[in-house]
Design goal:
single chain; 177 residues; alpha+beta; globular
Length: 177
């Protein structure tokens, strides 16, 4: 083959290879149907939002230099399959396992679009999870977010992780003067 023919051929081959590889990366991953059952809610008066089940609420407990937000069923007489919350502050600390017999593992899961290390306690099929991440806030009082949750089964734990993945920070909209 002539050198003059090899260069255009190689160029076309490389372009098609690159396009073929990039197509594989951009294929759409189907959305989990459970996400359609969730409603986005603001976490207190922060710029953070999370999607939770329609029959769940978010409650705030304020401290002198921190806030803790809990999400749980609105009907407090109902048995919760799962619940969770967030500590916003500068001095988070991890919870200990409920019992020495609980199995502990570390897994990676997303929150605030970051792949994060989570501690998972499995206590006879009841789960407790937690992670501490930097908030990305410049407000001074809430440098960290300690996310935590509990679930009554492995299936409910999957739902909790889906919910936690929906957490995001939105910049406040600027109103025209």
């Amino acid at each position: 083959m002539n050198i003059n023919l090899k260069i255009p051929f190689l160029s076309v081959f490389l372009i098609l290879t690159i396009l073929g590889c990039s197509d594989k990366k951009t294929k759409h991953i189907p959305e989990n149907p459970y996400l359609k059952q969730l409603t986005e809610k603001q976490i207190g008066d922060t710029n953070y939002y999370i999607s939770i089940p329609k029959k769940y609420t978010i409650k705030e407990n304020r401290g002198p230099d921190f806030s803790v937000y809990y999400f749980y069923p609105t009907d407090t007489t109902a048995t919760a399959a799962f619940s969770g919350g967030f500590y916003f502050g500068n001095h988070p600390s991890q919870f200990e396992s409920a019992s020495d017999s609980c199995k502990t593992e570390k897994i990676k899961h997303k929150i605030l679009n970051k792949n994060t290390d989570w501690t998972v306690y499995n206590c006879k099929g009841k789960y407790s999870i937690q992670s501490i991440v930097e908030s990305g806030s410049n407000e001074g009082w809430n440098q960290y977010i300690h996310a935590f949750a509990s679930a009554n089964s492995a299936a409910d734990l999957k739902k909790v992780f889906l919910i936690l993945e929906t957490m995001k920070k939105k910049e406040p909209s600027k109103q025209p003067k």
